[in-house]
């Protein structure tokens, strides 16, 4: 069975995408959140990024051709912006850490 033939993989991918879309939409109102709302948003983004990192690592470790092609496509797309997948994750972490630091200043 191929990597993408797995119902579990398909469900996780769908769930990650939907949750990411919902968080991005929600994040457009981040400035209007109270302190607890901002803290919760940051925690949810961190948890989602951890799940995404694990999901991508499963792609990288898979010997399935389609999984490997997906990893290469991501690398190619990010390379167009001069970024590697690791740099993308690092930047996301940096942004979340900066958001947490700003939140701490508000107390």
From TrEMBL:
<protein>
    <recommendedName>
        <fullName>DUF1825 domain-containing protein</fullName>
    </recommendedName>
</protein>
<dbReference type="InterPro" id="IPR014954">
    <property type="entry name" value="DUF1825"/>
</dbReference>
<dbReference type="Pfam" id="PF08855">
    <property type="entry name" value="DUF1825"/>
</dbReference>
């Amino acid at each position: 069975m191929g990597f993408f033939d797995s119902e579990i993989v398909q469900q996780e991918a769908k769930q990650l995408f939907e949750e990411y879309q919902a968080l991005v939409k929600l994040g457009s109102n981040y400035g209007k959140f109270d302190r607890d709302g901002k803290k919760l948003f940051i925690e949810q983004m961190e948890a989602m990024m951890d799940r995404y990192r694990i999901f991508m690592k499963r792609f990288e470790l898979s010997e399935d051709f389609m999984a490997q092609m997906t990893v290469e496509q991501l690398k190619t797309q990010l390379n167009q912006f001069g970024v590697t997948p690791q740099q993308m994750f690092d930047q996301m972490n940096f942004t979340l850490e900066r958001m947490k630091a700003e939140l701490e200043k508000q107390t």
